[in-house]
């Protein structure tokens, strides 16, 4: 059966000399892998539509459960080529794409993550703030995937606390968890996180956030991701750090 949908390319990898396995985040089928026959050959009908970040209308055949669906059509809606041309911008987006691939289940229809990613790409192409957009994307993606940390009150006794337990992924006061394995989170960071959980992307541009608060929230979210969701730091994060001479 042939299926048609809109998609954003998350990644691609070489299958043999001329073929690719392409990971797509689709509007109607969630995250899927598809087989693209000979897109690397000169004159291929796929052209540049299989580059990461490319937003296209695609068609594929085959059942995800039985074998790799075969991509038969990919027509570019918006290439987002400018976002691939600037190194720091593309590296930040690559980290977000890698997280998307790791955190979302394969083949589960869910329109939220697709629209979230598309909105971020459009905003960044318009020149919106990179760090703010990436942090918002990660927070919302964690929420869609069911991995969002709890940063309101102690999860056990509901008392106010600023102690974030990495192992539990939530706030735990000293009485409920005397463990020293925690981060101290300022109220401004907690408030920003909980506000970002609720707002729509259009509200994000109007937020006035201090650099310290934004960096603090970034540290909390990345620590939560590294500790609870992935075995080690994202490959892209490690590569970015190596180019800056930073230990990770």
Structure description:
With 248 residues, the protein is α+β, with helices and mostly antiparallel strands. It folds into 2 domains: 1-145, Nucleic acid-binding proteins (OB fold (Dihydrolipoamide Acetyltransferase, E2P), Beta Barrel), CATH 2.40.50; 148-228, no CATH class. 38% of the residues lie in helices and 21% in strands. It has 8 helices and 8 strands, in the order βββββααααβββαααα. The chain has helices spanning 82-85, 87-103, 111-125, 130-145, 187-198, 201-204, 211-228, 235-243, and strands at 2-14, 20-26, 30-36, 55-61, 70-78, 163-165, 170-171, 182-184. The strands form 2 sheets. It has a 5-stranded mixed barrel with strand order 1-2-3-5-4. α2 runs parallel beside α4 and α4 (130-145) packs parallel to α7.
Structural descriptors:
248 residues, alpha+beta, OB fold (Dihydrolipoamide Acetyltransferase, E2P), 2 domains, five-stranded mixed barrel, three-stranded antiparallel sheet, 8 helices, 21% strand
């Amino acid at each position: 059966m042939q299926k048609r949908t809109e998609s954003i390319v998350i990644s691609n990898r070489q299958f043999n000399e001329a073929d690719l396995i392409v990971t797509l985040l689709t509007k109607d089928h969630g995250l899927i892998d598809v087989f693209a026959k000979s897109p690397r050959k000169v004159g291929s009908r796929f052209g540049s539509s299989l580059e990461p970040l490319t937003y296209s209308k695609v068609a594929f055949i085959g059942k995800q459960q039985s074998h790799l669906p075969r991509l038969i059509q990919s027509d570019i809606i918006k290439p987002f080529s400018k976002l691939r041309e600037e190194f720091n911008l593309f590296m930040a987006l690559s980290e977000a794409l890698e997280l998307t691939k790791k955190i979302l289940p394969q083949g589960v229809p869910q329109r939220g993550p697709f629209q979230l990613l598309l909105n971020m790409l459009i905003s960044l192409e318009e020149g919106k703030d990179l760090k703010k957009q990436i942090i918002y994307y990660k927070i919302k993606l964690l929420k869609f995937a069911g991995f969002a940390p709890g940063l309101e009150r102690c999860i056990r006794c509901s008392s106010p606390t600023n102690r974030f337990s990495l192992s539990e992924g939530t706030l735990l006061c000293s009485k409920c968890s005397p463990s020293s394995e925690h981060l101290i989170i300022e109220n401004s960071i907690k408030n920003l996180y909980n506000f970002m959980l609720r707002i729509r992307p259009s509200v994000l541009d109007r937020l006035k956030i201090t650099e310290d608060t934004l960096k603090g929230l970034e540290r909390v979210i990345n620590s939560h991701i590294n500790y609870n969701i992935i075995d080690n730091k994202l490959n892209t994060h490690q590569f970015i750090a190596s180019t800056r001479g930073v230990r990770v």
